[in-house]
Amino acid sequence: MNQIPLSHILFVSTALFFIGMYGLFTRRNMITMLMAVELILNSVNINFIAFNKYLYPEKLEGVFFSLFIIAIAAAEAAVAIAIIINLYRNLHSIDVEAADEMKF
Amino acid sequence: MWTGIMVPLRQELMVTLILFLLLFIKVGASEYRTGTILRLVNILLLANLVLGFFPCPDATLFNGMFHTGRLIVLEKNILNLGTLIVSLLAYDWLKEHRQALEFYMLLLATLTGFFFMISSGNLLMFYLGLELSTIPLTALSGFDLEKKQSSEAALKFIISSAFSSALLLFGISLLYGATGSLGFDAIPRRLDGSAFQLFAFILLLSGFAFKISVVPFHLWTADVYEGSPVAVTAYLSVISKGAVFFIFIQALYTVFRPLAGNWNRMLILLSVLTMLTGNLFALRQNNLKRLLAFSSITQSGFILAGITGSSRAGDASVIYFILIYIFSNLGAFGVVSLISAQTGRENIDDYKGLYAANPLLSWVMAISLFSLAGIPPTAGFFGKFFLLMAGAGRGNYVFIGIAALNMVIALYYYLRVIKAIFMDSQPQPIGKLKIPLLPNIAFGLCVAGILVTGVMGWVYDYIYSLSIGF
Amino acid sequence: MGTTQLLFWFLSILAILGAILVVTSKNPVHSVLWLIVVFVAISGHYILLDAQFLAIVNLIVYAGAIMVLFLFVFMLMNLNADTEPQKNRWLKIAGVVTGGALLLVLVAALKKADLKAQMAEMGKGDIGLIHNLGLVLFKDYVVPFEISSVLFLSAMVGVVVIGKKAEEDKTTLGSQKYGG
Lengths: 104, 470, 180
Prior knowledge:
The structure holds three protein chains of three kinds.
Chain A lengths: L5 H21 L3 H25 L6 H31 L13
Helix pairs in contact in A: 1-2, 2-3
Chain B lengths: L1 H5 L3 H19 L5 H19 L6 E3 L4 E3 L1 H20 L1 H6 L3 H20 L3 H19 L6 H32 L7 H4 L4 H17 L7 H9 L2 H26 L4 H24 L4 H20 L4 H32 L10 H4 L1 H15 L5 H14 L4 H26 L14 H17 L3 H10 L4
Antiparallel strand pairs in B: 1-2
Chain C lengths: L2 H22 L3 H21 L3 H25 L12 H24 L17 H8 L4 H22 L17
Helix pairs in contact in C: 1-2, 2-3
Membrane topology (chain A): Multi-pass membrane protein
Pfam family, one (chain A): Oxidored_q2
GO molecular function, one term (chain A): NADH dehydrogenase (quinone) (non-electrogenic) activity
């Protein structure tokens, strides 16, 4: 009896997605916002792998998609960190509300 | 066997080759002169543009991951042309920049990304192409390293694009769950319009909407456009937007054709919202870059109006409009870029009395703005006309009426700039500016494109003969 | 309830709790540490779903590289002070309400899609092993693989350009002395 319905796994991934969304909108620390994005990306990965395993196990498309997501997330995080460091040199803060040079 | 791969992939390979050449120059050469390199790169870009015009067979490579045809080659040629103009215009700014080579490396990486994105036959390739273009673009928008505004723009850009990619990916993952495939040819067969698939589609649509700055997702646009270096803003507003529109329309017309009834209504709503919001905010801007940013949001609304036609005319008018939009928007941004590089002034008030000392720049600006506004002798008029005709093909006359009304509102703020240039005066007008050769060529290209493309009917007919629709 | 179920429930609760703590804890360093817990839990899920290679990659790349990078930046810039996490209460409430509504829509859509009845044997498969993945990766997925190499190159160039300190003869010192 080691079976788990697909809906349980999808629930976990959906919950992670919305927690990530919530974090992205409410946090002010730039690096924490990045972490929220990583949470969302991980929920996407769980989705892909679960669909691959449960519904379409004959091909490996889902697994490969998540592999590439992980790779690109790393590149994106690196560039984002560089931008944040550069901004920190200019502003001495990583609070998004400090980045308000341009307004309507 | 190799020609079977090399010929369809020639544009991507050429761009990547230039990229690596620059990398080797940067790493290997201890001493080089920036001016020489800039001229070399421009010649290579020209060669790349010419290479694209050689005939290319329709091909599907790598298990359907990459496909190309005459329409796609045409789209790539349009992007190549735009990149060449951007590069010519940026000459003045890059000459003084210490990292001109890196600028081109990042620029060409984004171009490769766009090419692979347009040619993708698979959601994985689409996503990779999109990211290959977005990640270097965010770095480019932070390229004025000492300026606070530039790094702020880069930050806003990367956070919003990471968020939009995440939405897009969640949509793709649900779509994969619903259809069991990532290939563009297999997905439509499994689409039946269930609630689950619609939800996935809406997430995908919001991801796209971010990239083309359609209204509920447009908030990053103005700040990023204002803060980035002008050359990057120009690139963002035409090349990046044009490429995403190309793949967007392809996805809607082929992959999501079974859901056409649903997306048609969504796009009409988004289009009206986008045009109105873009116009209302553009009315109150004083910085010319911000004004052009909001005007580009408005133009996205018009392009969406053309897409709702869902016909061959819809596809053709969008591609035709983007071609004209490249000429007109780059003309306007070119003038802003030149003046900003030499005097550092970007507000509309600074442009008062520009005509007295710089008649050439003033005329380029005026013609570009007329074309953006859609005033008859210029090509912009024909572009808008075809877009609205395509949109009217489905009988939504109220919607097309609103779009036409928006053209009138837009006229007001374009004329405001023209009035400042030609009629107003100020105590310290901008003095006589030197226009180097390369930007001069770019201005010539833009003005010629604006004046000639509209008159030559065969351009539209040619695009129409290649278009897709249903 | 078998071992697999027990493990599944344990990992799920760990992941969700960890995620909530990531977005609510005031100290950014705590956020990073909780995020590592989430990644470990998710890697556990991957192993249950027979994606063993991905589980290891997830640990190495996310927990090993990205999180260390984040921690490094926090420590380097001395940013481990508490920050007020929320902007204002109304925004928070609005976020929870819209997020909850979306969640409901998604759950309803999922229920309709007849996916919930799907079952699969857990821990009984070798599709995720490195041998099978490698064969497919270098046959069917060569082009995406090459594209991602160009992507890494361009990301590297971008990071070097942006992250590098401005040369001292170019600008006056002042803001640079805070940099990492």
